[in-house]
Amino acid sequence: MLIKCPSGNELTEGGATFLSTFKDPAGDIAVSIADNNNGTYRATYTAKTAGKHNLIVLLKTDEGDLHIKDSPFTVIVLPGALSVSNCEISGSGLEVVVAGETGEFRATSKDDYGNIVTGCKMEVGVEGPESVRILFNFANI
């Protein structure tokens, strides 16, 4: 963050106190703010839930905590990289299939935080004593 005084000039020293919160459906996420002592501040946070969120930044003043210009900010959080250990497979076709009938199951790809990851390529195989024909619908992946 770069701080300017009311006249529009950039400040060249630190000392201001900022408060910030990232609004996440799973719970508010604290934002760490470091004073660079030159009129700039570095803010960091780790978002966890994919979607549209708000980032609130307040400046502590004698009049109270005031939103800085354009706060709250709208932040779009995208899913992270595919996490194989968080992918889910479910459906009756994983347990019992009657000979001659179709077995069905669903694969859901997710990131480290459980967000659904789209656009992944999956390879599916079935092992058994007989040849098996597999039809896989990627429409929802």
Provide tags for this entry.
rod-shaped; mainly beta; single chain; Immunoglobulin-like; 5-stranded antiparallel beta sheet; two-stranded antiparallel ribbon; 141 residues
What's the SSE blueprint?
Elements lengths: L17 E6 L5 E2 L1 E4 L5 E4 L6 E11 L2 E4 L5 E5 L10 E3 L15 E3 L33
Antiparallel strand pairs: 1-2, 1-5, 3-4, 5-6, 5-7, 8-9
Give a structural overview.
With 141 residues, the protein is mainly β. It has two domains: 18-77, Immunoglobulins (Immunoglobulin-like, Sandwich); 80-141, no CATH class. It is 0% helix and 30% strand. The strands form three sheets. Strands 1, 2, 5, 6 and 7 form a five-stranded antiparallel sheet that branches. It has a two-stranded antiparallel ribbon with strand order 3-4. The relative contact order is 0.14. The mean pLDDT is 84.
Oligomer: single chain
Number of domains: 2
The share of residues in extended strands comes to: 25-35%
Helix content: under 10%
**Beta-strand segment tally:** 9
What's a concise summary of this model?
It contains no helices and 9 strands.
